[in-house]
């Protein structure tokens, strides 16, 4: 009798624990809380908020930090490299203004500002768990959704950029994942509000990182087509008018910055102007498929003097012409470089490190995640999962510009939430198959 009571007690406790875990594992509160605590803990224990100041604090936000410091000092959106060089459109405005707000309140390049900015990035990264969960549940299953959200919350490689870089990377990931979810679900939502949200979020994304707009045509067409199909069935969702509304909201968001650029530089500039300079950093004598950072104005004194003497637009025009001349001189060579950049984007770039094995080890994990994500995408397409083709267009379109310019590990971060979903889907499917085979053998 006592043994039975003890067993019942253990079973009861186990059942209660199982119930508690069941609630925790699907709770946004706990997923986000754990994700944020891990990231902030990493910032504190790793002292990542202590940026070196031997380079006059340039490593604290790089161009973003310089522009933010200029804004906080009352000199406007200018001086991206340190010296007084005048107004700039080298970076998109949203993140520098956000950084400037922190600088104004807590001090320019102060440790408190560094801690708060990295914590803010960590908040963006932790909140990304929510659209990850929704997307994975919509396309695959709740099991994949739970696994994907917790993977994003717990994996150390996910935490790196938000805890070490004062940059727009984590905010871009949150924005792109959220607009992906909106595009995926717009067909189910009535009224004008979803279209307003769609245009607003794309406007914010454009002001944060115009590169994200490479996915806008696919997302917009997907949302319009799926909504139009629903129109035929229900007759009341007015998809075309919704697209017009979203477009108006989008342009209302970005127009003030376009006007600022025109008034400042005397010509039309779509949000940022540095593409020509970036193209030259990937294409020119000595190009090998990686970033030729030694040509950047922050690394090359001669380039900085050119930039100061010529002005931003003239400097970028010269750099763009040099890159285009190099490309036109040998298109096959350019195609070869694009192939290398494709490989480096998905497998990691070669880099000399100490110890020698560190970078190959990192790149092997980087490549593994890419292979699993591609494999998961092909499986999703083969199984005709709803939304799989939208994942395909994201993976196809977003990285394309980096194949022509140069890749860097942080450039992949905005699409890594969707890659994480695909990896978890593949591993979950493999686990379910293994379990089913084991049961069948018994």
Describe this structure in words.
This protein has 442 residues and is an all-alpha fold. Helices cover 71% and strands 0% of the residues. It is built from 20 helices and no strands. The chain has helices at 2-25, 28-45, 62-72, 94-106, 111-127, 129-139, 142-154, 156-164, 169-185, 193-208, 216-234, 239-265, 275-280, 301-310, 312-329, 331-347, 358-382, 388-397, 400-404, 416-441. Helix 3 packs across helix 4 (94-106). The longest helix is centred in the middle third of the chain and has 27 residues, at 239-265. The relative contact order is 0.10. Keywords: Cell membrane, Glycosyltransferase, Membrane, Transferase, Transmembrane, Transmembrane helix.
What is the element layout, followed by pairings?
Blueprint: H1 2-25, H2 28-45, H3 62-72, H4 94-106, H5 111-127, H6 129-139, H7 142-154, H8 156-164, H9 169-185, H10 193-208, H11 216-234, H12 239-265, H13 275-280, H14 301-310, H15 312-329, H16 331-347, H17 358-382, H18 388-397, H19 400-404, H20 416-441
Helix pairs in contact: 2-5, 2-7, 2-8, 3-4, 4-5, 5-8, 5-9, 6-7, 6-9, 6-20, 7-20, 9-10, 9-11, 10-12, 11-12, 14-15, 17-20
Characteristic terms for this protein:
442 residues, mainly alpha, transmembrane helix, RgtA/B/C-like, glycosyltransferase, Glycosyl transferase, family 2
Calculate the mean pLDDT score and round it: 92
Query: How far from one another are the termini?
Result: 34 Å
Q: Approximately how much beta-strand content do the residues carry?
A: under 5%
What is the chain-wise order of helices and strands?
HHHHHHHHHHHHHHHHHHHH
The parts where pLDDT drops under 50 for at least 5 residues are 1-8
Structural class: mainly alpha
Cα-based radius of gyration, to the nearest Å: 24 Å
Number of helices: 20
Helix content: over 70%
**Rough shape?**
globular
Describe the main β-sheet briefly. none
